[in-house]
């Protein structure tokens, strides 16, 4: 069995675990960008690369960038640049080639290029887009012909596998946001939650991936035609026979059954993937709703410091969870009822009694007017954050106008602040009469700083 370190240098990851890993990673990206061109093809003149590294070390001249043992070996920026190149060469990141005329080139290995690309994607939090993925699979299969049949099936198979991988990554990415939100326990974490939701999550999930998956590249639009094209190939005995012989020629497979199995496996994978794709997208929808609900609940929890029963329990739970030395026995008395056997499976039989309902008579003075008003206020308070109430709140804010900026919404109380947050959260839900659009502009409203967004009715297109 092939081992990973049969392909790459055994010390390849040492530079990423070094005390100077930040500096090494910066230099790796500098080298990568220096040799990444059409003309050079990841091969560049050593002196040019050294000069780029010298510029980097000159900018960091006042900072401590090497540990004590390595600092003794280097003093000038050129020595540091050459030192880094030698370290990366010794650990298998780069190689050197003599070109003659006293010229040397620095080359990147194929595995180095792949890992650097991956590190760059993680560094910049790039989310893979889905525009045209399903449509391209449909287009490839639609253009199927016997002559190019093997290439068509191979491309459709690879693109289907890539699509499944991207959707699984998307689901995992939503879980990362959900995990980050559930770790926030302090009121001061509220700003971080809002930034992740209103900026990072919106840009990386809604704008790039989810929107395209639900609109231009939606599964229901192309699923049936794709499955139809696959069935047209798979169910035609003559076509499958010709393709199996082509597989034997192109893939150098001598056994006909092996070639036929190679072909059948790819066709069945495409068909099975698109048959099961509905469940994967449904899981993504559920995970998205779970994240939105968790974020809304966390925001309401962190902002609820009222004196009602919910606010009191919030503060009580915080005390118990945050203070390990807190003696909760002075507040709570937990005990086991001794006269019940908790291990018994016996349920006592009870005689069935048919009850007869009595007429309900409510005296006129049973509930006072003051108590009625108090109960009505309490009921309204419990439902003031529902989607229906937020819809009504937005209508009142618009007040007949086509749109309004979040920065223009009046925020005088904590309730106004919560309703503004829920206005954004509920904008993607069903039965909502408005939509929001990020304006990518940081604003301040009553000492609260956030990214401004536009609130507009669903019929309003004038702002566009």
What would you say this structure looks like, in words?
The two termini are 59 Å apart. It contains 15 helices and 6 strands. The longest helix has 48 residues, at 256-303. The chain has helices at 21-35, 46-59, 68-71, 77-90, 110-123, 133-142, 149-182, 190-214, 219-234, 237-250, 256-303, 309-322, 369-382, 387-398, 414-425, and strands at residues 43-45, 94-100, 103-108, 403-405, 434-445, 448-457. It is mainly α and 464 residues long. Strands 1-3-2 form a 3-stranded antiparallel β-sheet. A 3-stranded antiparallel β-sheet has the order 4-6-5. The protein has 3 domains: 4-123, Orthogonal Bundle (Arc Repressor Mutant, subunit A); 133-303, no CATH class; 381-464, Ribosomal Protein S8, Chain: A, domain 1, CATH 3.30.1370. 18% of the residues are buried. Helix 7 (149-182) packs parallel to helix 11 (256-303). Mean pLDDT is 77; it is low at 460-464.
How are the secondary structure elements laid out?
Layout lengths: L20 H15 L7 E3 H14 L8 H4 L5 H14 L3 E7 L2 E6 L1 H14 L9 H10 L6 H34 L7 H25 L4 H16 L2 H14 L5 H48 L5 H14 L46 H14 L4 H12 L4 E3 L8 H12 L8 E12 L2 E10 L7
Antiparallel strand pairs: 1-3, 2-3, 4-6, 5-6
Helix pairs in contact: 1-2, 2-4, 6-7, 6-9, 7-8, 7-11, 9-11, 10-11, 11-15
Outline the low-pLDDT stretches: 460-464
Number of domains: 3
The main sheet orders its strands as: 1-3-2
The quaternary organization reads as: single chain
- Structural class designation: mainly alpha
Strand content: 5-15%
Q: Into which percent range does the helicity of residues fall?
A: 55-70%
Shape: extended
Return Rg in Å: 32 Å
Give a short account of the largest sheet. Answer: 3 strands, antiparallel
Secondary-structure element string: HEHHHEEHHHHHHHHHHEHEE
Mean pLDDT over the residues: 77
**What's the total helix number?**
15
